[in-house]
Every structure is written in structure tokens, then in C-alpha cells.
Write a sequence for this structure.
């Protein structure tokens, strides 16, 4: 006695418009550092950007140092913001990017250039004490140096993670 068996396969596809955020990334050391670096970078941009001018009280200030600082802070702010958002929006990115040599190289370069930019701005400001822009630019330079220290800490974490990944 033979039986006939019919097998029917049904494939269901669903799409979702919900954006799932990897909020757990912000609980990691790397996530917290990137968040702090982004916030401090935005503060520096705001402080210097709001006070940049070619003439202060009739005295021409050398803007080369100020523009160097602003360029460095802006470049690393944008890149860190992109890394932070990418890691928040993608579990794969959050788990993979810190194991790459890019993470190590980026943090080393950010540390070195922000340190240089902060020191250069401090040196430029020493002759401008008492001017209306002095306090804001001094605060920005100090915050830039703190941010540089955070990038050094990120470099240490990135080196440890990169070596631990066995790549």
C-alpha cells in the first residue's frame, strides 16, 4: 500500500521600520570614551567657533594656531561621532571595529594631534590675557587637552583589544 505525501513550504518575509539601537555599547569603556570625546569635541568647537574673529579690540590675532586647533577638533569630532553612531546602530560594527588596526591608528593620531593643537593654542593665548575671547579659548584649549588624554586612554584599550583579538 503506497501513500502519497505532499509537502508545502511557506516562506514568510517581514520588514520592519523600527530602528534598534545597541544601547549596551554605551555601557562599555569604549562606548563611554567615544561619547565623552564627542561631547568634549562639540564643546571645543562651540567655544572656539563662537569666538573666532580676525580682529579683537583692534589688535590682529594670529589665527593660524586657532584654526589648527579648530581643524583638529572638528576632524576628530566628526570621525568619533561617526564611529559612535555606527556602533550604536549596528551590533556587528560594535563588536568588530575595536578589533581592527584602524581603531589603534585613529586613536594614536587623534591623541598626538589634539595634544599638539591644545599646546599650540595655549602658547598662542599667553600674550592675549585679558582679551574678551581669552577665557573661552583657554577653556577650549584645556578641554582639548583633556580630550587628548581620553584619546590616549582609548589608544591603550584599542591596543589591548587588538592584541587580544589574535589578528
Amino acid at each position: 500500500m503506497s501513500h502519497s505525501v505532499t509537502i508545502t513550504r511557506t516562506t514568510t518575509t517581514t520588514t520592519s521600520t523600527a530602528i534598534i539601537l545597541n544601547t549596551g555599547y554605551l555601557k562599555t569603556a569604549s562606548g563611554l570614551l567615544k561619547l565623552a570625546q564627542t561631547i568634549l569635541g562639540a564643546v571645543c568647537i562651540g567655544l572656539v567657533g563662537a569666538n573666532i574673529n580676525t580682529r579683537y579690540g583692534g589688535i590682529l590675532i594670529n589665527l593660524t594656531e586657532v584654526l589648527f586647533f579648530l581643524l583638529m577638533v572638528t576632524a576628530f569630532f566628526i570621525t568619533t561621532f561617526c564611529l559612535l553612531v555606527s556602533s550604536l546602530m549596528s551590533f556587528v560594527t560594535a563588536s568588530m571595529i575595536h578589533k581592527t588596526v584602524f581603531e589603534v591608528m585613529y586613536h594614536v593620531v587623534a591623541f598626538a594631534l589634539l595634544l599638539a593643537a591644545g599646546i599650540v593654542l595655549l602658547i598662542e593665548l599667553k600674550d592675549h590675557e585679558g582679551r574678551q575671547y581669552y577665557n573661552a579659548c583657554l577653556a577650549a584649549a584645556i578641554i582639548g587637552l583633556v580630550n587628548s588624554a581620553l584619546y590616549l586612554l582609548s589608544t591603550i584599550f584599542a591596543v589591548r583589544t587588538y592584541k587580544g583579538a589574535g589578528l
Q: What stands out?
A: The chain is about 65% helix and 0% strand. The helical segments are 29-51, 63-89, 91-96, 101-125, 134-164. The longest strand covers residues 55-56. Strands lie at 55-56, 59-60.
